[in-house]
Every structure is written in structure tokens, then in C-alpha cells.
Design brief:
Blueprint lengths: L20 E5 L5 E5 L8 E4 L3 E4 H7 L15 E3 L4 E4 L11 E2 L5 E6 L2 E6 L10 E2 L11 H5 L24 H9 L4
Parallel strand pairs: 7-10
Antiparallel strand pairs: 1-2, 3-9, 4-6, 5-6, 8-9
Bound molecules: S-adenosylmethionine and zinc ion.
């Protein structure tokens, strides 16, 4: 394929400076990460760092509580690929404070052994950074399970849960980003 037709790789996207975002309290949950300057679409905002472990080890460290538990689930695990998840409890940076939104402005995109949080549209000063966690459980996403992962993103199209919808497409901006940039 001619070089000019090749999609840019995630690892080639421009990198934000840490001066462009800051962690602070969020109405969604605990802390969130906010833009301090405009951030252009297609920017690697921050790497999601942590220990690379298997899915089985992630489940062993942080088993999902049964439905009768009252507190919502809280996780710092992010899937890197079919075999590995990143445990940001160990070696994590500010990326672990980026909250979920059902209408996100960022998307986690893998590049080899690294996971980048990439902006999928231009982000204005003061906006909270967020990606769609789209969490997939092995078991069915019953109403009781969804309640264990409540969403408070406040979007008009909020799904009410951090779980991946079984019958609803992801945001068009996220799909466009996945088409635009080559992972790995
Ligand atoms: C990686 S942490 C994000 C940082 C978190 N706010 C904190 O202060 O530690 C992920 C957890 O934050 C919470 N969370 C993230 N986005 C949320 C949202 N839109 N609504 C409700 N809780 C959310 C959930 O408990 C989730 O498991
Ligand atoms: Zn939501």
C-alpha cells in the first residue's frame, strides 16, 4: 500500500503535555481529569500505565462482588488486549482517574504493550476527559448486574450503566477514531 494511504499509527499521534490536563473532584465520581487547554482530536492525551497482568489474575485480585452488595463496583483495570489487562493500582498515573461517559470525548487505544487515551474530538478548556468503559462481564448483563455499575455521566443518552450495551452501537466518534488510526 502506498505510504500516503496508510493510516497513522496510534504511536505516531501527537502527544499532549501534562500541563494540558489536571485531576480534580468530579460530580460523576470521586476524582476526574479535566482539560486545562484545548486538546485537538487525535491527540495521545496520556498513557494508561500500570502492571500488565492476565485476565485471570485481574479477576483473582478484584473479583466482582455479588448483586446483593450495596456499594457500586470500583475498578482500576483496563483491558489492553485479549490476553492482558492493566492494573493501575500498581504503577498507575493520573489516567486512572479518567471517568466513564456514555458519550465520550476520548477512547483508549492500544499500541503494542502500551495503552493511550486518545481524544476522539476537539476538547474545550474545562471539559472532563472521559471514555466509554464498555465493561463486558462473562455473565449476562441483567438489570441487577447493571445496578452494580451505575453511571452518572449526565449525558442525555446516558445508558445508566458502565457495562457494554449488548444491542447498542458505540459512539460514532469512537467508531470513527478506531477506523482512522492503526492500533499496534
Ligand atoms: C478508574 S476509576 C475512575 C476514577 C474515580 N473517579 C476515582 O476517583 O478513583 C473507575 C471507577 O470510577 C467510577 N466511575 C467512573 N465513571 C463513572 C461514572 N460515569 N458514573 C459513576 N461512577 C463512575 C466507578 O466506580 C469506576 O469503577
Ligand atoms: Zn452514562
Amino acid at each position: 500500500m502506498p505510504r500516503s494511504l496508510r493510516k497513522p499509527r496510534v504511536s505516531q499521534l501527537p502527544l499532549a503535555s501534562p500541563a494540558q490536563y489536571r485531576k480534580r473532584r468530579s460530580p460523576r465520581h470521586g476524582f476526574g481529569v479535566y482539560a486545562l487547554t484545548p486538546i485537538k482530536r487525535g491527540t495521545r492525551v496520556i498513557e494508561y500505565t500500570g502492571e500488565l497482568i492476565s485476565h485471570a489474575e485481574g479477576e483473582r485480585r478484584y473479583p466482582t462482588a455479588p448483586d446483593y452488595h450495596e456499594d457500586p463496583e470500583h475498578t482500576y483495570l483496563l483491558q489492553l488486549d485479549d490476553d492482558r489487562v492493566i492494573d493501575a493500582n500498581i504503577g498507575g498515573n493520573d489516567a486512572r482517574f479518567i471517568n466513564h461517559s456514555c458519550v465520550p470525548n476520548c477512547e483508549p487505544m492500544p499500541a503494542g504493550d502500551h495503552m493511550w487515551i486518545v481524544s476522539v474530538r476537539n476538547i474545550r478548556v474545562g471539559e472532563e476527559l472521559a471514555y466509554d468503559y464498555a465493561i463486558e462481564l462473562d455473565e449476562p448483563h441483567t438489570p441487577a448486574r447493571k445496578k452494580r455499575f451505575p453511571c452518572r455521566c449526565g449525558a442525555r443518552m446516558c445508558r445508566g450503566s458502565l457495562l457494554k450495551p449488548k444491542h447498542q452501537a458505540l459512539s460514532p466518534l469512537v467508531l470513527a477514531a478506531r477506523r482512522a488510526w492503526e492500533c499496534c
